[in-house]
Amino acid sequence: MTEQNGDLAFLPLGGTGEIGMNLNLYRQGDTWLAIDCGIGFSGNDTPEAEILVPDPAFIVERRNKLAGLVITHAHEDHIGAVAHVWPMLQCPIYVTPFASAVLRRKLAEARLMDVPIRVVMPGARFNVGPFDIEFVPVTHSVPEAQSMVLRTPAGVVVHTGDWKFDPEPLVGPATDLNRLAEIGQEGVLALVCDSTNVMKPGPSRSESEVRVSMTELVVSLKGRIAVTCFASNVARVETIAMAAQAAGRTVVLVGRSLRNLDTAARECGYLSGVLPFLSEQDVNDVPDDQLLMIITGSQGEPRSALSRISMDVHPNISLGEGDTVIYSSRMIPGNERAIMAVQDNLAKRGVKVITDREHFVHVSGHATGGDVQKMYELLKPQHVVPVHGEWRHLTAQAALAQEMGIAPILLEDGDILRLSPGKLEVVDTAPTGRLALDGNRLLPMNGGVLAARRKMLFNGIVIGSFAVDDEGFVIGDPKVSAPGLLDPDDLESVRVREEFANALDVIPDELRSEDGAFREAAKTALRRALGRKLQKRPLVDVHVLRV
Q: Where on the phi/psi map is residue 168: left (φ > 0), alpha (ψ -120 to 50), or beta?
């Protein structure tokens, strides 16, 4: 890949062709700039992992040429992987005050105290290495979302991040239309644009409309009310709290991410018009008809508060007949099954579940097709590069650009797009991949640990153990453990144990003296003893104890 002065390139490592895991790179000359570093949720196709992170290997190899990481806003799919990936990057991080408040908590939890964080005010212009960057405030479902304008010798590139047009966003300013129009007058080489909600026609609806509708709904309900939404959606948390106050209800926050969000928001001057929230320990001190809980778990996450409440295993909160749960959120693709399972469990307990299909309780923070067309009119870009979305979202935006006479360029993660000099085209590819967040470790999805877990998940695991004397002859009866495959007392288990013992007896003497060779022979013996009856190929391991 050629790297020369005046050369400008764009490379998505995550978030283009998928929802979440946003990690984007720009190269100017031989210097790189990273934008966003987020997580994604595992879908039904990857049950062995819950949270995924884009593999940063390509930029880690070039980290001495990485000028910095800029975060456009504080959503998990843009900021959630920073604490896990930063130790590999070791670069300065540029964030707005709110994103800084959120990020510092994440870094402290990961015991990372020496990360160079540079706080940049919304709407400011600043430099990161050779990159001349301007933040343009945009509306999104989190405070202080910023689009980025990159001014380079090759021309102006606008990287939108997540955004929408909303004349009354209620928290933070409306998208700065005048500034966008001024940038359009400068001439825009390329618009790298969010595609998530582009398939919805017409203009976006406003958060102010949700507030009116949510208040009408909450005032009409009896019993306990729980509302679940994305923790980072400060405007929505404020909307729910205002609706509760109008109905004479006290608000309780349930879930760690909501408590963290509340602290970060109030630190930065948001939620100032809302009374302090109670904690979940206070929930039973408030009469049912005067209680409203805001709860984490809108995506059906198995360990979330709402999931545990739906199975009646939450230590402080229960819901039942006469209570209502309102889903003030959308389903992220891939989470449908998990969300429906939680809603089903709630319904079994007699809880009424209300979603945006029954009542207007949610509006997307992402630009509709109408918003995107209006953005094109303001910026007048020569080229449009759709990002942030699955292939159907990217192609839908490409079609919109084409309709308006703008040249679209479709990319997937790993495509290196030359923006200058000459024709805009994909000139190379970079290695990409996904890492699974396993506790505090990052594991490659195609590596040995997760491959073994995948095999165990579908085929089970069988462990044989036996003791041998110093000559390698078996003492007593070998044991076979096969949790999830065989019950210890059934006839099939007895048969496997006996055949395993017989197979061990005929292992040649020359293999018995060396533990490694003996163990491999014993594993083969155990596989043979399992035979074809199980019609599975479980993971097999053997423990040999020399006495």
A: beta
Distance CA 134, CA 209 (A): 31
Q: How many CA atoms lie within 13 A of 194 on its CB side?
A: 29
pLDDT digits (tens, 9 = 90+) for 171-224: 888 898 999 999 999 999 999 999 999 999 999 999 999 999 999 999 999 999
Strands 188-194 and 155-159: parallel
Contacts 24+ apart (CB under 8 A), 418-423: 418/7, 418/8, 418/9, 419/8, 419/9, 419/10, 419/154, 419/155, 419/157, 419/189, 419/190, 420/6, 420/7, 420/8, 420/152, 420/154, 420/155, 420/189, 421/6, 421/7, 421/154
Neighbours of 14 (CB within 10 A): 28
CA atoms within 13 A on the CB side of 59: 33
Cis preceding-peptide flag for 421 (omega within 30 of 0): yes
| Cα gap 101→81, rounded to integer Å | 16
Q: What share of the chain is helix, strand, coil (3-state, %, to 5)?
A: 35, 25, 40
Question: Structure pTM?
Answer: 0.83
The pair of three-digit structure tokens given for residue 437, joined into one six-digit string: 């967040």
In whole angstroms, give the CA distance from residue 208 to residue 359: 15
Q: State the average pLDDT over residues 133-152.
A: 96
Residue 505 backbone class (left: φ over 0; alpha: ψ -120 to 50; beta: rest): alpha
Say which DSSP state 25 is in.
E
**Rg of the Cα trace of the chain?**
28
